[in-house]
Every structure is written in structure tokens, then in C-alpha cells.
């Protein structure tokens, strides 16, 4: 997936998922996951299936692996399903948000998995489909729901949240310097008529960002659109629930690989992995109890970025930050996430 929005959207987009999506850092993801697959009948959960690019790469590279693909976007599931049909029963697509990973595995009768892959952010499909309202480059309804079957839309947020809350969302989720000005203008505009189209929002943002600032950094609306998308889909809250649940789903020796595309996501990933990779014993204890030893081992040094070759091959990898860890033992009872009945295999 990606955090970089298209400045231009093609007039006609084919239905072939492979032609519409180039997975970010695919080979690096495969290399990181490979050691975990050196067991009998390994299972990977692709928590953000999208159009199936990463899953296809896994199924091609590792003929003994089964993949469970989760996505809240029914259109993505349909496209990925067609793309992955040649792999038969080795692929199972599930309509679910990735914080539901353990419920899905329970229903499928899978006690623990060898890999979890999370490619966060907005997908190529969502950007390319104009009527979804994710892109600021074309006028469309203010929707922005990843699951178009449920939940509030961007229009609902813009037309019902108060000015202070709108400003907070734009400032925190979009890191928008001019959030108060934009929020004030949104409230003034909706007093005349409710906002309904992305073009209206782009015009408001442009009018409330100084001309000197608009000269650099691309389209000035991109931060506002990012913030609204995150709010509409509850992305940060879902991610913060999903990370510990995903780690809990891993069998010992299993690996989690996460690709994030903005600082809020990456900080959440870094915190979650650090909990497992750090001793939970009080620092003044002379001997670390075995129950407090780390249960994760970090397998990347910090957050990895795309190199020049990847950027040339896939410009949407520009903002990616990749982190990975391996489970080395079961989670101690005092650190298990709440509301989960699962245990590491």
C-alpha cells in the first residue's frame, strides 16, 4: 500500500489487479519471512491483502505456504481473489479488519501462524477509483471509507464534527500547520451548504494555506486528505489494537513484518515491537526472571527504507518504513493483550 497519492488518475483502469499494483519492498518482505516458513505446513496472514501483490509473491516463492488474506475492502477482496485463484486452496480471502486477526484464525481452526504481514496505508485500488474519494486530484464524493459497506464517510466528519475537533484531526493525523484556519473555513462553508465533494474541500484548503507555502511540498490538500482518511477508518486505533493481537497470533519462530507510511503508524509499530523485545523486569533486579525475558527479537535495525532501485521501480515506496521481529518464546501472562483467548503455539 502507499501514503503517496496520485497526482493523475487514468481515465480507464483495467480490472486486472496485477497490472494495477506493484507491491512495496516485495523481495525484502520475502527474505524476512523466509526463515519462519522452514516448518511443515506454514501459514501467513496477509493482514492488508489489497490487490494481492505481496500474497502472490509469497505463494510463488514458497510453494508450501498457505496464506490467509484479510481486507475490509470488498472490492479489493474480489480483485485479489481473481488474481490468486490459480493457487486454489492455498489462499483464503476473508472480509475483516486486521484487528480481527485472532477471531478469524479461531474460526478457521488455526492455532498459530508462521508469519504476519501488514502493509499499511491506502491502497492503489482505493486511490485509483475516483468515486471512492481518496484522491485530491479528481472531484468525487467525500467518502474515503476503506469498507464502503459501513461506517461514517468523510462528508459525515466534515459536516458534523465541531471546529476544535476538526482542527485536532488535521493537526494530529495530517501534521497540518494551518489546521485551525482550515477547520474554521470548513465550518463556515457548511453553514451555507453541507460539503459533499472532494473538489470543494480542495478549494477550501488551497484558500487557507498561504501562497508561499503552496509552492513546495506537492498538493497542499494531501495532509488534510490523509487526516480525514485516518479518522474515517479509525486507522490508528485499529492498528494499536491489531499489533499486539498479531504478535499473539505468531507461533514461536514466527515473524511479523510491517510496512508503515507515515510517522504515526511507524511510531505505533516501533512501540509494539519494543514491548516484546525489551525485558519487562524492573531495572534494579539483580537477576532477570525468566518470565520477564523478551519474547520478540528485532530482525531489522530500526526502520528500513526503500533504496534507489526500489524507488525507481516503484515510486510509491518513497515514504515506506519497514520493521520486523521474530517470536522467540510465548508471551508471558502479564504482557498478553486483553480480550484475547489465543496463546502462542
Automatic annotation (TrEMBL):
It is found in: Cytoplasm. It is an enzyme of class 2 (transferase). Keywords: Cytoplasm, Methyltransferase, rRNA processing, S-adenosyl-L-methionine, Transferase. GO terms for biological process: rRNA base methylation. Residues 323-336 have a biased composition (Basic and acidic residues). S-adenosyl-L-methionine binds at residues 52-54, 71, 98, 119, 126. It catalyses: cytidine(1402) in 16S rRNA + S-adenosyl-L-methionine = N(4)-methylcytidine(1402) in 16S rRNA + S-adenosyl-L-homocysteine + H(+). Specifically methylates the N4 position of cytidine in position 1402 (C1402) of 16S rRNA. This is Ribosomal RNA small subunit methyltransferase H. It comes from Cellulomonas xylanilytica. The gene is rsmH.
